[in-house]
């Protein structure tokens, strides 16, 4: 009886079924090599850890000094809108095609192999730049006079060890760090309000005193032109602060029920990031003067943090050390994320034939160890921070990271535009998508326009008033010619520069949505609403 049934089953498996399975394996097949043990709680916190880092705790002082209190608030708000638009696009596309390092594979699937190849390798280039590890070394100078190279070596080993364990353990470590950051941010907001309202003994009420010094600061020219230059320069700096938000779909291949997890995490993470950022920066403008010389030139550690400046002046002694400690965990988490991104990018490229197949090899824990090895080889670049100009080195790495983030936002927007075009040509509607947001069609063009504009003007201050500085210019723009050269090279090799909308394989993706349904999350009840803070 069983043998007969097996024969019948084999007969039913037609040639078309086999071809369909082959196509599906080409799109999703290698994802099964990774361990699918994460959920929305983990990817949400991994993303938060990448966002709440040195950009908020250290670089925000320089942004306030450059743009002024109202100017810096507008900068964070506007970049938040660009990120929201990008996030909506990334979520819709990733929920239809949930794969590891999604926007690399999305580019190959919806735009062209040449574009995907360029995006993939520029992502690896940016991810291997150890900007946050160099920040770790500088942060430690707040407590120790040891050469920063010592700390680069010590924490470099910690980062490598963390990435060698199961992805589930990595997720739990980052979840813990994420909770610490949320508590720190909420604590900073509360302490800031207490300082501002005169709640510290012996301190006057500040109110909006520092806003009266000038809502906007100027740069190079004491005029409206100078104020606009300061505003636009700060916009480019704030991009770095929002880095990591697009990482929600980074680990789609290692998440159980990826579609629902990505959709849920995307909504919650952006809301948390945006509200916490705006609240924190608003409080910061109340308790620190934008004219304060201590925030104008960052030391790279807690001593230059605008929050520490305000807390010290309020006579609170212990908190600066706590802030430096959490900032240290922020930089470590971001370094971990960089290694994770570059290793998964190599895995994603190898799965589509754009990197050697050796990077597809995983151990029994589901960790792509050859890809990880290549990713950590470049960590010693952080030894550059051992020089006397450590904070300058960090600013170079920061500029590289900002350019890379903008390229990713551009890519995400283009992926969504091309997906929408293919859906229209092939007769699919937005109702066919597993998850969608209202207005995303317009959001993709909004994000594309402003992300491109910010990328092209990332180093514009080098052309003003004879202020040309080659390292700044190089770090702001090198990623553009690098991407163009890589794209042309692969386009010539593969003779493929653009996929026509009618040739985009949407059927496999929509069939997969139907064949692998995912259960909905149960509705929150009672005290379960508190889990919105972390889950």
TrEMBL record:
Any Pfam family the entry gives: AA_permease
GO molecular function, one term: amino acid transmembrane transporter activity
Annotated compartments: Membrane
Coarse class of the protein's main subcellular location: membrane
Keyword terms: Membrane, Transmembrane, Transmembrane helix
GO cellular component: membrane
Topological type in the membrane: Multi-pass membrane protein
Record-annotated membrane-spanning stretches: 43-64, 70-90, 110-128, 140-161, 173-195, 239-257, 269-288, 369-390, 435-456, 468-493
Domain Amino acid permease/ SLC12A as annotated: residue spans: 42-495
InterPro entries: AA-permease/SLC12A_dom, APC_YAT
Family indicated by similarity: Belongs to the amino acid-polyamine-organocation (APC) superfamily. YAT (TC 2.A.3.10) family.
Protein name from the UniProt record: Amino acid permease/ SLC12A domain-containing protein
Natural source organism: Clavispora lusitaniae (strain ATCC 42720) (Yeast)
């Amino acid at each position: 009886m069983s043998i007969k049934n097996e024969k019948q089953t084999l007969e039913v498996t037609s040639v078309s079924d086999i071809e369909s399975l082959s196509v599906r394996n080409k799109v999703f097949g290698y994802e099964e090599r990774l361990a699918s043990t994460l959920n929305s709680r983990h990817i949400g916190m991994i993303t938060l850890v990448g966002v709440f880092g040195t950009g908020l705790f250290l670089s925000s002082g320089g942004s306030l000094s450059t743009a002024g209190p109202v100017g810096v608030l507008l900068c964070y708000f506007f970049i938040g809108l660009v990120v929201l638009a990008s996030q909506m696009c990334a979520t819709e596309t990733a929920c239809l095609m949930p794969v590891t390092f999604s926007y690399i594979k999305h580019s190959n699937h919806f735009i062209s192999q040449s574009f995907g190849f360029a995006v993939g390798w520029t992502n690896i280039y940016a991810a291997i730049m150890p900007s946050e590890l160099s920040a770790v070394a500088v942060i430690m100078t707040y407590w120790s006079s040891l050469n920063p190279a010592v700390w680069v070596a010590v924490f470099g080993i910690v980062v490598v060890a963390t990435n060698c364990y199961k992805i589930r353990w990595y997720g739990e470590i980052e979840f813990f760090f994420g909770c610490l950051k949320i508590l720190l941010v909420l604590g900073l907001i509360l302490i800031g309000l207490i300082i501002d309202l005169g709640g510290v003994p012996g301190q006057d009420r500040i109110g909006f005193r520092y806003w009266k010094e000038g809502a906007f600061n100027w740069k190079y020219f004491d005029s409206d032109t100078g104020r606009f230059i300061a505003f636009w320069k700060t916009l480019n700096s704030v991009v770095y602060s929002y880095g990591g938000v697009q990482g929600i779909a980074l680990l789609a291949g290692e998440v159980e029920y990826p579609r629902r997890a990505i959709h849920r995490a995307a909504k919650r993470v952006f809301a948390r990031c945006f509200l916490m950022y705006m609240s924190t920066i608003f409080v910061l403008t109340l308790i620190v003067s934008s004219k304060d010389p201590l925030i104008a030139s960052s030391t790279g550690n807690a001593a230059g943090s605008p929050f520490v400046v305000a807390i010290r002046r309020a006579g609170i002694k212990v908190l600066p050390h706590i802030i430096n400690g959490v900032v240290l965990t922020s930089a470590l988490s971001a370094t971990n994320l960089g290694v994770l991104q570059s290793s998964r990018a190599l895995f994603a490229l190898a799965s589509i034939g754009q990197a050697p197949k050796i990077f597809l090899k995983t151990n029994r824990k589901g960790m792509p160890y050859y890809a990880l090895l290549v990713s950590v080889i470049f960590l010693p670049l952080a030894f550059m921070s051992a020089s006397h100009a450590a904070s300058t080195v960090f600013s170079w790495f920061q500029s590289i990271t900002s350019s890379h983030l903008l390229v990713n936002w551009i890519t995400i927007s283009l992926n969504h535009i091309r997906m929408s075009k293919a859906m229209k040509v092939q007769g699919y509607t937005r109702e066919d998508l597993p998850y969608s947001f209202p207005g995303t069609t317009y959001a993709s063009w909004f994000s594309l326009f402003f992300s491109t504009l910010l990328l092209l003007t990332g180093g514009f201050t080098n052309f003003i008033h004879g202020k040309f500085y080659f390292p700044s210019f190089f770090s702001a723009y090198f990623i553009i010619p690098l991407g163009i050269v890589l794209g042309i090279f692969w386009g010539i090799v593969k003779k493929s520069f653009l996929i026509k909308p009618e040739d985009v394989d949407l059927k496999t993706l929509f069939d997969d949505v139907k064949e692998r349904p995912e259960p909905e999350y149960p509705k929150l009840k009672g005290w379960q609403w508190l889990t919105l803070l972390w889950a």
